[in-house]
Each structure stands twice: as structure tokens, then as C-alpha cells.
Amino acid sequence: MEALDLARWQFGITTVYHFIFVPLTIGLSLLVALMQTMAVRSKDPLRKDSWTRMTKFFGSMLIVNFGIGIATGIVQEFQFGMNWSEYARYVGDVFGAPLALEGLAAFFVESVFLGLWIFGWGKLSERVHLLTIWAVAAATTASGYFIVAANSFMQHPVGAALNPETGRAELDPAQGSILAVLTNVTTLAAFPHVIAGAWLVAGAFVTGVASWHMVRHHRRARALGLESPEGAVQDAAARDLYRPTVRFGVVAMFVSAVLLVISGDFQAQIMFRQQPMKMASAEALCETETGAAFSILTVGGPDAFSEDCSGVTHLIEIPYVTSFLATHTFDATLQGVDDLNAQYKEQFGQTVTDVHGNQVPADYRPNLFVTYWSFRLMMGLAAFSGIVALWALWATRGGRTTGSKAFGWFTVLAIPMPFLANAAGWVFTEIGRQPWVVHPNPDDPTIRLMTMQGVSGNPGWMVLTSLIAFTLVYGVLAVVWFQLMRRAALRGVPLAQRDPVTDELDTPTLSFDY
User: Fold this and answer.
1) 3-class DSSP assignment, residue 263
2) Is the omega angle on the peptide bond into residue 276 within 30 degrees of 0, that is, cis?
3) Is 157 inside a domain boundary?
């Protein structure tokens, strides 16, 4: 494999791995803040105690996830200098601005206030302490915004001009400068979708963990007998502690699902205008069509998808839906992959100069196989959350709890599905943009850079060495993260105990996993 392929593999592996932690941190920080808010505002001592225990229970897992996320995220920015130095040289003046804002205005804030939240229990006033976790939630969301803004510049460059003397893209006041970058329409469309995806991840996580414990305590209560003191305690834990948390997670999933559909529809219409090749590839739409159908199942091996469209067969389609998604009209004409490829060759050239100065034939199509299936995996994997939400609502209706093992295990097995859906969405976003690392703006295609032109001139063996090293280190971190999260989740919430003298509930502690 050439250095370009290895560099793309390395960036893809480290980025997708890092993004396992990002949505859970963003979503869980908000849900933990809401849990603590309900605890602070509650007038009922038992309800207040329950939500305080849940806040600390899920807060302990938030801390673990946040720590591993930091360790894996630092690598991302270093790669721009190590493997993608030509890209960094070309757009570093623009791309670096939102990254700097993410570090200074978001990451430092969330780190500081997370520390205050962890060590402020019992030391800060109740309401001041509550503000610290809300600051963490706001900062993690802001961090996501700046990262999405940086990525959106790669998808749709605005606010900059090409300096003919240096051959670099630079922020330009005449084009709107940094404000234009931060208010890029692509950013405004992508950010709600990314945040809604994070909420779905956190909602599914909370629902899955709480459901498993609800089922466990329900079964214990029935085994011990509800008339026994211990059985009554187990039943109360299932009914009063875990059941409200299950339904809380379901509400988060429902809100995120609505926002995902609305923002996804808006984002799709923008991408059909800004990156028609990506969306045509997502549908394996080879030829220009009027009233294009939406493909449910298309077959053909990887060669049939990537070499040309002649071997692609659409088995199941819904008529006119793709045209509707693109324009909200059923009879819109959408350009196909082959026609767009010919158009781009005419516009940008039949050949392109790579980073070594060689002229190579230009092909402006992404990998159709990966683009097509990652788009469907993104939507299909998210559907598991819908099944969990409906099942959970039914199982907990009317104040009920359930001891169904099938329900408990299904909710646990469904926890990784939104993670995978998020990863598939980013694979679609990035692979579908290829062969561009900076996709040309249709209105002003001056700023553009192909992926083969952005890589460093490192030899292949050097990139391969770092790729192997990162993969091994990340593999170890994955095992550590999973074991810490699993141990924290299985521990459950310590059940409330009353002091025999004062008759007061004991105070739960925030446990740590170092």
C-alpha cells in the first residue's frame, strides 16, 4: 500500500475510534445535568435521593469516558502535521481557527468545570454545584460545534480566499472571515444532526443500563417474595429507582429521534446542492433520472460499485423518494454518478498533479460501495433505538416493571447500535466527499484540494509503523475503557439505607475508576 492509502487508513481508524467517546460524553453530560437538576428541584426526599444516586452513578461513567476521550483525541490534531502536512499548509490558516477556539473556549472550560463538579460535592452550595455540570454540558456541546465548523469548511469552504503568492487559503474579511466559517450553512445543518446523534447514544446508554438493573431487581424481588423485607427493597429499587430512569432515557431517545429526522432532511437537501456526487453515490444513482427512486437494496460486488455502475442492480426501490428528499418535489431531475464524473473532468481537468508532482488520471467518484452501505447502516442501526424505546414504554406502562430477560438483554445489546450508526454516518460523510479533502464550493470552486495532494511526503514504511503502533495502543485503551465502563455499569446504584438513630437516608458517594 502507498503512503496515501496508509495515511487515510490511520486517520480513519483513529478518528472513528475517538468518535466512540465523543457522542457519549456530549450526550451523557447533558443527561447527568438533567438528572442532577431533578434532584435539586425535587421536594420529595425519596425522589431527591433517587435522582442524586443516578446522577453519581452515570456521572462515574461520564468521568471514565471523558478521560479516555482526551487520550484518543489529542492524536487527531498531530496527524495534520505528521501525515497531512500539505493539507495543513494549504488550509491551516482557516482550519486552525475553529480548532483553536475548540481548545480555548470549550475544552478548557469543560475540563475545569468537570473537576469542580467531581470534587465539589458537599463543598459547593447545591445550586452552584449544579451550575458546574451544566457548564460541562454547555462546553462539550460548544466543543462539538467548533469541530463541526472545522469539518464543514472541508465540505463547503467559505470565508476565505486563495492567496496567489503563497498558494494558501487564508481568512478573508471580504468573504466574511471567521464569522462566515462559524456560520457556514453546512455547519448549521450538520451540528443539530451531530448533537441529536449524541443524545441518541446517551439515551440508549442510560435506557440500556437502567433496564438491565430494573429487570435484575424485579426478578430478585419475585424470587425473595414481595412480602419479605428484602424483597420489598428490591421491588422498590426496580419501581422507584430504575423505572423512572428507563423512561427518562426513552424521552431523550424520542427527542433526539425527532431532531435527527428534521435535521437529516435539511442536511440532505443542502448536500444534494453542495455535493451532488456524494448523494448520487449514496443512492448508487448511476444515470441522471427524473423522479429518482430511493434504493432499499442494491446488489453488486465492490468492483461493480467502484469501477463503474454497469454491474449495479437495484432490487428494491421506492419510486420518487430520492427526488423528494433532494427538493421536496417528486419530479426533480437528479444527476447521476457517471454524468457528474464527466462534468467534473471537464471542469477540473482530466488529470491531476499529485503530491510528488506526477500527472495521474482524475476520477471524481467516491467509493460507491462504502458510500452506499454506510448511508444505509447509519439509518438502519439507529432503528434499534426505536425498537428499544417502544418496548421500554410498553414494559413500564402504568407504573409496571418487568422481569423479562429478553427485554433486559436486548436493551444491553442495543447500546452499541447508536455508536455504530454515528460512526457509519461519519464514514459516509468523509468517504462520500472523496476524492476531495477540501470539496470545492459550487458557487466559487477556487479553494479546493484533492486528497492525494494533501498527504505528506513520508515513506510508506514510516506511516505503516505509526499505524501499527496506534492500532495496538488504541486496542489496549479499548480493553481498559470497556472493562472500566462495564465494572461501573454492573456495580449499580447503592440502595438507600436509613440511619437507625436519625432516620435519615445515607448519602451516596461518587465512585471513581482509576
Assistant:
1) helix
2) no
3) yes
In-domain check, residue 349: no
The Cβ of residue 364 has, within 10 Å, a number of other Cβ atoms equal to 20
Phi first, then psi, for residue 290 (nearest 5°) are: -105, 130
End-to-end CA distance of the chain: 39
- Tell me the per-residue pLDDT of 210-253, one tens digit each, with 9 for 90 and over: 999 999 999 999 999 988 888 888 888 899 999 999 999 999 99
CA distance 203 to 250: 6
Residue 244's contacts (CB-CB under 8 Å, 6 or more residues apart) are 50
Handedness of CA 183, 185, 189, 191 (dihedral sign): negative
Is 50 exceeded by the pLDDT of residue 501?
no
DSSP assignment of 192-248: HHHHHHHHHHHHHHHHHHHHHHHHHHHHHHHHH-TTSHHHHHHHHIIIIIIHHHHHH
Whole-number Å distance between alpha carbons of 288 and 308: 15
Q: Which three cell numbers stand for residue 237?
A: 429499587
Grid cell 471537464 — which residue?
Answer: 346
Instruction: Give the span between the Cα atoms of 317 and 295, in whole angstroms.
Output: 4
Q: How many domains does the chain have?
A: 1
Per-residue model confidence as pLDDT tens digits over 378-406: 988 888 889 999 999 999 999 999 999 99
Is position 432 within any domain?
A: yes
Can you say how many angstroms the Cα of residue 295 is from the centroid of all Cα atoms in its chain? 25
Work out the angle between the directed axes of helices 21-41 and 416-431 (0-180°, nearest 10).
Answer: 130
**pLDDT for 514:** 35
497 found inside a domain: no
Q: Could you tell me if 298 and 275 are in contact, meaning their C-beta atoms sit under 8 angstroms apart?
A: no
Q: Which residues form the domain of 175?
A: 3-272+378-491
pLDDT in tens, 110-159: 989 999 999 999 899 999 999 999 999 999 999 999 999 999 999 999 99
- Cell numbers linked to 23: 457522542
- Rounded Cα–Cα distance for residues 118 and 148 (Å): 28
Instruction: Quick: pLDDT tens for 304-322.
Output: 555 566 667 777 888 888 8
